[in-house]
Amino acid sequence: MSKRRRTSSITSKSQEDDSLDSLEASTSSGPTMRKRKRHQDPVELIQQLYDMVRNHKKKDGSLLCDTFIRIPKRRQEPGYYDVVSNPIDLLKVQQKLRTDEYENVDELQSDIELLVNNTKSFYKRTSQEHKDASELWELFISTKNNSTTAAIKNFSS
């Protein structure tokens, strides 16, 4: 019976792992093969979506989210609270992120949608705030769909 010697070199270790993986792949059948792809954590995806919304710049170089960071103050826009029954801003979304209140992407989407709908219901269709809200929603949905598609591809491969 021959003894295998332990190698301390990192390259030897990786070569050993590669040969073990190829041996395992050649002897296993179908779906029982070990997968080494990293799956994206929903919390990580939520943070990436928020960061994208928070850091996206418009064509003029200003941040798209400037309008949505804080809700209007009662003294400045008293009519806002007559129109909007459930106000939310990006600071509230950020607070929920920090306290791990979002369990999935749909909960974040719900808050972003509320923010966008609040803005659209208060501001006129021709206002910059209304246009920014529409752009923010389109950006969020397209990024979410692209991220979800990529996560599904990583999961299934």
From TrEMBL:
SMART domains: BROMO. Residues 1-41 are annotated as: Disordered. InterPro entries: Bromodomain (IPR001487), Bromodomain-like_sf (IPR036427), Rsc/polybromo (IPR037382). It is found in: Nucleus. SUPFAM superfamilies: Bromodomain. GO terms for molecular function: chromatin binding. CDD domains: Bromo_polybromo_I. GO terms for cellular component: RSC-type complex; SWI/SNF complex. Its main location: nucleus. Keywords: Bromodomain, Chromatin regulator, Nucleus, Repeat, Transcription, Transcription regulation. Residues 60-130 form the Bromo domain. GO terms for biological process: chromatin remodeling; transcription elongation by RNA polymerase II. Gene3D superfamilies: Bromodomain-like (1.20.920.10). This is Bromo domain-containing protein. It comes from Callosobruchus maculatus (Southern cowpea weevil).
